[in-house]
Design the sequence.
C-alpha cells in the first residue's frame, strides 16, 4: 500500500472514530448524575430476591450470569492459547540454569526474606479464600480472590527459588482446577434445568441475607470461578516463569 | 468532601497516565504502569465501585507487571 493510500485510509478511519466517539460521549449521563432506573431497581430488588448484600455479585453471577459464563471461557481459552504459544519449541530445550561460577555457592535467601515469604503467603492465602467465599456479601468474588490465590505462588517463588515453587504447582493440578472450575460453572447452570426452570437460575437455598453461607448459586459460582481463575493465573505465571528460567535455545 | 476525593483521584490518574507515556525504558515503564493501575483503583474506589477497584488492583498490580517483567527477562536472556 502506497503512502498516499495509507494516509487516505487513516483519515477516513480517524473521521469515523471521531464521529462514533463524539456521538457516544454526547449521550453519556453527566458527571455525578443520578443512578439509572435499572440500577435503582436492582438496588431495591436484589437483597430481597437473592439474599445478598453485594448487588454487583448478584448482577454478574445471577441476573447476568450468562455473560460471566462467557467471560470464564474467554479466560480459559486465553490461558490455553498462552500454554500453546509458550510451549518448548523444537529448537529449545528445558534445563535448569547453569552456575557460571561453580566455585562460589549461591547464598540461600536470608531468614528475613524466608520469614516474610511464609508470613505473606499465608496471609494472601487467607485473604484469597475470604475474598472468594464472601463474594455475595462484600466487594470481591471469584475473579479477584482467584488472582490473589494464584499470587501466593509468586510470593513462594520470590522467597525461595524455581525448584521449590515447582513442587507447589504440579501441572496436572493447575490444569485440572482451570478446567474443573470452568466446567463447574456450566454444571451449576444445569442445576436450574434439572429443577425444571431455566439455565443458571438460582435454585439452591438462598439462606439468610448477610450470613456466611447465603445467596444460593451466587456463592457456589463464585467458588468455582475462584478455582478456575486461581488455576488459570497460576498456569500463566508458571508458563512465563518456565520461559525465563528453564527453556533455552539449543546450541548449534 | 467526596468531590475533593474524586478530584484528587482524577489528577492522580492523569499524572500517572502521562508518566507511563513519557517513560521510554520498558523496565521502568512496568513500574509506572503499576502506579497507574493503583491510581485507577483509587479512582474507582472514590466512585464507590468496590468490585471494579478490586479487579483493577489484582490485574494492575499482580498480573500485568508479572507478565511484563518476565517477558523482559526472557528477551534479555536471549540477547546474552
Sequence:
Amino acid at each position: 500500500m502506497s503512502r498516499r493510500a495509507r494516509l487516505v485510509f487513516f483519515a477516513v478511519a480517524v473521521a469515523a472514530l471521531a464521529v462514533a466517539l463524539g456521538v457516544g460521549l454526547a449521550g453519556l449521563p453527566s458527571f455525578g448524575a443520578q443512578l439509572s432506573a435499572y440500577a435503582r431497581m436492582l438496588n431495591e430488588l436484589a437483597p430481597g430476591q437473592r439474599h445478598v448484600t453485594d448487588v454487583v455479585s448478584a448482577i454478574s453471577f445471577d441476573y447476568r450470569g450468562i455473560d460471566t459464563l462467557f467471560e470464564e471461557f474467554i479466560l480459559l481459552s486465553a490461558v490455553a492459547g498462552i500454554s500453546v504459544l509458550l510451549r518448548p519449541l523444537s529448537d529449545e530445550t528445558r534445563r535448569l540454569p547453569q552456575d557460571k561460577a561453580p566455585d562460589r555457592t549461591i547464598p540461600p535467601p536470608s531468614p528475613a526474606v524466608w520469614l516474610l515469604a511464609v508470613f505473606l503467603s499465608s496471609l494472601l492465602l487467607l485473604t484469597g479464600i475470604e475474598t472468594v467465599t464472601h463474594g455475595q456479601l462484600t466487594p470481591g468474588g471469584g475473579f479477584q480472590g482467584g488472582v490473589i490465590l494464584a499470587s501466593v505462588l509468586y510470593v513462594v517463588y520470590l522467597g525461595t527459588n524455581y525448584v521449590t515453587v515447582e513442587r507447589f504447582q504440579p501441572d496436572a493440578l493447575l490444569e485440572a482446577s482451570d478446567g474443573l472450575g470452568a466446567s463447574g460453572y456450566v454444571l451449576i447452570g444445569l442445576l436450574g434445568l434439572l429443577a425444571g426452570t431455566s439455565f443458571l437460575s438460582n435454585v439452591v437455598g438462598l439462606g439468610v441475607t448477610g450470613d456466611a453461607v447465603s445467596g444460593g448459586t451466587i456463592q457456589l459460582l463464585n467458588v468455582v470461578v475462584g478455582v478456575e481463575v486461581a488455576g488459570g493465573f497460576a498456569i500463566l505465571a508458571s508458563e512465563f516463569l518456565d520461559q525465563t528460567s528453564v527453556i533455552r535455545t539449543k546450541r548449534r | 468532601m467526596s468531590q475533593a476525593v474524586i478530584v484528587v483521584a482524577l489528577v492522580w490518574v492523569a499524572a500517572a497516565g502521562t508518566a507511563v507515556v513519557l517513560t521510554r525504558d520498558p523496565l521502568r515503564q512496568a513500574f509506572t504502569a503499576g502506579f497507574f493501575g493503583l491510581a485507577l483503583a483509587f479512582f474507582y474506589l472514590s466512585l464507590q465501585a468496590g468490585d471494579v477497584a478490586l479487579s483493577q488492583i489484582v490485574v494492575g498490580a499482580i498480573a500485568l507487571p508479572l507478565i511484563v517483567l518476565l517477558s523482559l527477562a526472557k528477551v534479555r536472556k536471549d540477547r546474552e
In short: The radius of gyration of chain B is 15 Å.
